[in-house]
Design a protein that fits this description.
alpha+beta, FAD/NAD(P)-binding domain, binds flavin-adenine dinucleotide
């Protein structure tokens, strides 16, 4: 890495939340860099076989504004995404969610274009391995394949998905589950599908019997068999493998990854025999890593509760909205526990401000929330909305020459209202 590197903002983690944070900050004038372990942006959304933005809409209409909306519109316009309203969830058809189905490879390209367009710098195949907050600035030690170097910035955003950076900085974090192993999934993609026949079968409701059969035979390790068609192709992505693990233990994680991968071919054979439209299907890609739904979160200035979501509390410092129901994958019963929530709920800024730290906030799924509330807010569109607002918050802190934990609710609210309006106006629609 040539030369000294000084930024306004370092974002560690270039998942959807980190990328939107960086784009928002850079568009607001901050010199911004993203440190990303992979060689692409998007994290789970682009690299793990996910293809559905859950609760991207509410009651049959798109829910989000700003950069989230901009990205969704671009993917739709090019034929690589589509809204599907009131889609029944495979583990409980009574629960219906408005979703945006998308092609993850195209999202990779769009996120990168957005970052480059906004002037965001990014360092791929680099990892933050240490960090320190000082009174006037922050330092992050970054390791790439061939070198280790230090970057400096006024502000930091932890968008690692598991509060890696906050931990390095000495901030307080909480493990999702101390005593129980967590259910992880390795997604995969199938080609050679007759989509019309598959969709007809899914509509018939007979999939529940197939899930029951697969579970009894031991081929399905959980009570779920979700096929998601990928727009622009005749492929589907499958959320079906299950492996319980302590994701922070290298040996345990590795065994779980092998265990999940070993389920893929038997599942493939099972569905070919039991699900019409899949008779000639074959595996075309497997996620390179296990998806851990609920990892480590920060202990923030406020911890979001299920009550907040049920009451749709409109916080003074609200920065993001969502409407996804609570959806927890229980490692003991292997069932998905659902709780439908009454409407659009809010996430306050204080949930992304870690206790004890001043110049660091988080973006994405390591925000401060109780397990049940996290089970609802953890999905991609909500985390993208949180990420975007985190980027604007960093820009406000720079403008007001304040630390990130000093922002006042009133000025943040005004600033966000202005930012989201501007983005819409620039885009030419309201
Ligand atoms: C199995 C599974 C299925 C899911 N299905 C859906 C679904 O269908 N629909 C939906 O809307 N949501 C789904 N989700 C939730 C979705 O994955 C999250 O909402 C989303 O990934 C959160 O984005 P993020 O940017 O916070 O985190 P991530 O996507 O995890 O991004 C974090 C990024 O940080 C990088 N990183 C981590 N540590 C470091 C470090 N030290 N240095 C540098 N880089 C680092 C990682 O490489 C990664 O790119 C699912 C989650 C799982 C686990």
């Amino acid at each position: 890495m040539k030369g000294e590197k000084r930024y306004d903002l370092i974002v560690v983690g270039g998942g959807t939340a980190g990328t939107l944070c960086a784009v928002a900050a850079a568009r607001s004038g901050l010199k911004t860099v993203v440190i990303e372990r992979n060689a692409y942006l998007g994290g789970m959304a682009t690299g793990a076989g996910l293809t559905e933005m859950n609760a991207a809409g509410f009651q049959g209409k798109p829910l989000y504004k700003g950069i989230v909306d901009e990205i969704f519109r671009e993917m739709i316009k090019s034929g690589h995404a589509q809204y599907h309203f009131a889609v029944p969830m495979s583990s409980n058809p009574d629960v219906k969610v408005d979703r945006l189905r998308y092609d993850p490879e195209i999202l990779k390209i769009i996120l990168e274009e957005k970052a480059i367009g906004a002037g965001v710098e990014f360092l791929y195949e680099t990892e933050a391995c240490a960090g320190i907050e000082e009174e006037e600035m922050c330092r992050v030690t970054v390791r790439s394949r061939y070198e280790t170097f230090e970057l400096e910035a006024n502000y930091l955003v932890d968008a690692t998905g598991n509060a890696d950076l906050v931990r390095m900085l000495g901030g307080e974090t909480v493990r999702a589950s101390r005593d129980k192993l967590l259910t992880a999934t390795m997604m995969f993609r199938l080609s050679g599908i007759d989509l019309d026949r598959l969709q007809e079968f899914m509509r018939s409701g007979k999939i529940s019997d197939v899930i029951q059969k697969g579970y009894q035979e031991g081929v399905l390790k959980g009570r779920i068999l979700a096929f998601t068609p990928i727009p622009g192709s005749s492929d589907v992505s499958l959320n079906v493998t299950r492996a319980d693990c302590d994701y922070e233990d290298a040996e345990d994680y590795s065994k779980a990854a092998a265990c999940a991968r070993s389920q893929i071919l038997p599942v493939c054979r099972f569905i070919r025999e039991n699900v019409p439209g899949t008779e000639n299907c074959y595996v075309t890609s497997i996620s390179p890593f296990l998806g851990i739904r609920d990892a480590r979160r920060i202990r923030g200035r406020y911890t979001l509760t299920l009550g907040d979501l049920e009451n749709m509390t409109d916080f003074e410092d609200s920065i993001a909205v969502g409407c996804y129901p609570m959806d927890i994958h229980d490692p003991e019963t292997k069932a998905v526990i659902w709780k439908v929530l009454p409407g659009v709920y809010h996430i306050p800024y204080r949930c992304i401000v870690p206790g004890k730290l001043h110049r660091t906030i988080v973006a994405g799924k390591c925000l401060s929330a109780e397990k049940e509330a996290f089970g609802a807010v953890r999905v991609m569109p909500i985390m993208m909305n949180v990420g975007e607002s985190a980027g604007y918050a960093a820009a406000l802190a720079k403008q007001e020459e304040k630390c990130l934990d000093e922002l006042e609710a009133g000025s943040l609210k005004e600033w966000l209202a202005d930012k989201y309006e501007n983005v819409l106006r620039e885009d030419g629609h309201e």
